[in-house]
TrEMBL record:
Official protein name in the record: Pimeloyl-ACP methyl ester carboxylesterase
Signal peptide start and end residues: none
Alphabetized SUPFAM superfamilies for the sequence: alpha/beta-Hydrolases (SSF53474)
One Pfam family here: Abhydrolase_6
PANTHER family according to UniProt: HYDROLASE, PUTATIVE (AFU_ORTHOLOGUE AFUA_2G14860)-RELATED (PTHR43798:SF33), MONOACYLGLYCEROL LIPASE (PTHR43798)
């Protein structure tokens, strides 16, 4: 992705286009490149697309949690003074988006969740990242997708590099455990923003029943399933994902 990474204070982010902010939050092993198809499309179609680089491995251990990431996003939004935000999160990023919308709803115009944690997630399954085990990392990366070929060598190498550092592994485990502890089942019914749920029918990490449960609990929500799609629809089926998202956004009233 050949976009300029901007810096303001401690925040690093990409910002492209003009219009209402569409802020995209990546997941635990996510990269900014996860949203390259949304960045290109929506920045050309009337939105200011913003991708903050979440400090998943840069917070001190005490704040390496869903709550710590939410505080970081809140400070980022305040520093940049974004208003009328469409907040989109995948996986752990969705969890952070949910928590932020509950704590600071005033700037959020709509919420978009795809493969979000917050109710239930298989996450690491029955094991945690093993340092130095490339095949383990490759298999775990493949599980993100319906089509294992989506787990390219470049993507597997990125994840492998992250998990080769002992402190990184400790922080990844801390974040995964924090996501499980921070269950929002009793709170998400308080969300009043229009909410879009886009789920892969073949998601094994946050399976389809999780999308259905979010839909049942969040009052003003709509749910879309995509066939032959896993945990990262915005990467695996970007065309269909963008079409669903654009239709949802264009139904919302334009801010004054």
């Amino acid at each position: 992705m050949n976009y300029e990474i901007k810096q303001e204070e401690k925040f690093r982010f990409i910002e492209e286009g003009q219009g209402e902010p569409l802020i995209l939050l990546h997941g635990l092993f996510g990269e900014l490149s996860n949203f390259k198809d949304q960045l290109g499309y929506f920045s050309r179609h009337g939105y200011k697309v913003v991708l903050p680089l979440l400090p998943l491995l840069d917070l001190d251990l005490l704040h390496t949690s869903v709550g710590g990431l939410q505080k970081y996003v809140h400070k980022f939004i305040e520093t940049r003074d974004y208003q009328d935000i469409h907040l989109l999160g995948n996986s752990l990023g969705g969890h952070v988006a949910l928590l932020h919308t509950l704590k600071h709803p005033e700037r959020i115009k709509s919420l978009i969740l795809t493969g979000s944690s917050g109710l239930f997630e298989n996450g690491m399954g029955d094991s945690y990242p093993k340092r130095g085990d490339y095949e383990y990392i490759r298999r775990k990366t493949e599980l993100t997708f319906y089509d294992p070929a989506m787990a390219t060598k470049e993507l597997v190498d990125e994840v492998y590099a992250i998990t080769s550092n002992r402190l990184n592994v400790v922080k990844i485990i801390a974040l995964a455990k924090s996501a499980i502890r921070n269950n929002l089942g009793e709170e998400v019914s308080q969300i009043q923003q229009p909410t879009l749920l886009i789920w892969g029918n073949n998601d094994t990490i946050t399976p389809p029943f999780v999308g259905k449960e979010f839909h049942r609990l969040i009052p003003h929500s709509e749910l879309h399933f995509i066939d032959k799609c896993g945990h990262a629809p915005m990467m695996e089926v970007p065309g269909e994902f963008n079409q669903i998202l654009e239709k949802f956004l264009t139904k919302l009233p334009v801010s004054a």
